Amino acid sequence: MNDEEALIQSALAGESSAFETLVCRYQDRLYTAMISIVGNADEAEDVVQESFIQAYLKLDTFQQNSRFFTWLYRIAFNYALARRRRNRGHLSLEESRENTGAEPSFQGDTPDTRLSRNEDIQLVHKALALLSEDHRSVLVLREMEDLAYEEIADALNISIGTVRSRLNRARAALKTQLEKFPEWNPDA
């Protein structure tokens, strides 16, 4: 039994500190993934909070045939989609960029390099916001969360073949969207 399985068993036995450990372990990663999905920091916080509540309430249904984060991501993704359907509101690109917050800088970079990287990151966020939810989610899970195809298939409840085709189409769609921005320079 690995550490994650032990924490889940302890949480199921009523140890709230075990579930708290799972929350601490995965909250930042889930939050980052949800910002990329919903495009809004406040909404991502709400989705993450509600997802952990639902995970706690439904922990006894977790069959442990996948990783806990994969199961948790599926809960969060489904909740984010449900919220979007209910709200039907759509953020403008400017609101989306403002709400995602500042991008990290890397030590040793020159100010010009950091500025260029931040501009590229903002353009990628803009382009991601223009993609369909299916394409955006598969790209986030693969490229930002570095999940394996099997984990993505499990998280999104789709086949591995569908993951491969969506990922291929999503990358092409992202490239097409980025090429529409005159300031995009992939060679920089």
SSE inventory with pairings:
Elements: H1 3-12, H2 16-38, H3 41-57, H4 68-87, H5 93-99, H6 111-130, H7 133-144, H8 149-156, H9 160-179
What does it look like?
There is one protein chain. With 188 residues, the chain is mostly helical. 73% of the residues lie in helices and 0% in strands. The chain has helices spanning 3-12, 16-38, 41-57, 68-87, 93-99, 111-130, 133-144, 149-156, 160-179.
- The residue ranges in which pLDDT falls below 50 over 5 or more consecutive positions are 89-97, 102-108
Structural class: mainly alpha
- By DSSP (H or I, 4+ residues per run), the number of helices equals 9
| pLDDT averaged over residues | 81
- Computed over alpha carbons, the radius of gyration is 18 Å
CATH top level of the largest domain? Mainly Alpha
In sequence order, what are the helices and strands, one letter per element?
A: HHHHHHHHH
| CATH homology superfamily name of the largest domain | RNA polymerase sigma factor, region 2, helix turn helix motif
CATH architecture of the largest domain: Orthogonal Bundle
Condensed summary:
The chain is an all-alpha fold and 188 residues long.
Observed structural traits:
188 residues; mainly alpha; Rna Polymerase Sigma Factor, Chain: A; Arc Repressor Mutant, subunit A; 2 domains; elongated
